[in-house]
Amino acid sequence: SSDLQDQLSEAFSAIEQDDLEQAQKICDQLESSIGEHDSRVLHLKGMCAWASGEVDSAATALLAAVDQSPEDPQIYLDCAELYLGMGLEIDAAEASLRGLLAREGLDAGVHSEASILLAQCRLEHTDSDPQEALEILDGLEDDAQNSAMARSTRSAALVELGRGDEAIALLESAEVGDEEAGDLVYQLGICYSLAGRTDDANTAMVKVRDLDAAQDEYEELDAQESAGLRSIVEELLEDLPEPLLKRVAAAPVKVQARATDEQIKGGIDPRAFIGFDGDAENEAMTALVIMRNPLLDALDHESQLPEALVEAMIDEFRRFFGLEDLSVAIT
């Protein structure tokens, strides 16, 4: 009914505006009126949970919604994006997308989005198949093939196939809006680095920082927020294995909005949450730096903060100290 659709629209709008209390209120009302097992209720419940940082609950609800073969294609897309984006079961994301793509009369835009996500699944799967990913992308309409999402996915497949020069050419020729440019320039920087073009990589990554910063709408970093982030990281450091802790114990913990030009040229990722500043070649670390704005860019909920910082810290141990095989579980 139109009333039901109005309620659903209001709830999803509330999620977009971070009014989770209102969205959850509508969800509870719909559970009472049309049942908690209705695919539309499960979809809304899943999206509320995702926005609240409750990833496992969101995954359960969205998969249950897809299992009912609903008419709304957004349910399939949201389910796939959650499973793919949060590193959950790729098979579940792929099954959701293949189920959607098997339907007749699918809107062209939906078909393109689902196809690109499916190509990404083929790249992320443990049994990665970049050639199939390219074949999926080749089936897109011209406009869709030129989208930022499609170019990014195609370039990743090309790199995996050892065709880095083609990936670079594809990304260099992209014409996209400012909001999409950062992602493509970031990928271009990675491709330059893999090709040994260090100066080009550094220039690209500084540009990524500037493009991301141009989208910032955050309050200025203050002493209280800095102290809070420092405290979280210092607690995480206490749980590090002794051999790792010795490598960073003497370095001060600093907090800043984003990486500086020099830090980026020294190897720090402009989108990293944590950077080890100093001379990586000689393993001479001068500071552990927390990047506040990339954290805010990436996290959906503050409950994800500790895990995100741990993963970022381990990534930096691998990069700065050359510990490529490092795997650490911190509780």
Sequence-ordered SSE layout with sheet pairings:
Layout: H1 2-16, H2 20-34, H3 39-51, H4 55-66, H5 73-85, H6 90-101, H7 108-124, H8 130-138, H9 142-145, H10 148-160, H11 164-172, H12 178-194, H13 198-214, H14 223-238, H15 242-248, E1 253-256, H16 261-265, E2 274-279, E3 284-291, H17 292-298, H18 305-321
Parallel strand pairs: 1-3
Antiparallel strand pairs: 2-3
Helix pairs in contact: 1-2, 1-3, 2-3, 3-4, 4-5, 5-6, 5-7, 6-7, 7-8, 7-10, 8-10, 10-11, 10-12, 11-12, 12-13
Throw out a few tags for this protein.
331 residues; 3 strands; mainly alpha; 3-stranded mixed beta sheet; 18 helices; globular; 5% strand; 66% helix
Structure description:
The chain is mainly α. 66% of the residues lie in helices and 5% in strands. The chain has 18 helices and 3 strands. The protein has helices spanning 2-16, 20-34, 39-51, 55-66, 73-85, 90-101, 108-124, 130-138, 142-145, 148-160, 164-172, 178-194, 198-214, 223-238, 242-248, 261-265, 292-298, 305-321; strands at 253-256, 274-279, 284-291. Strands 1-3-2 form a 3-stranded mixed beta sheet. α1 (2-16) runs antiparallel to α2. The longest helix is centred in the middle third of the chain and has 17 residues, at 108-124.
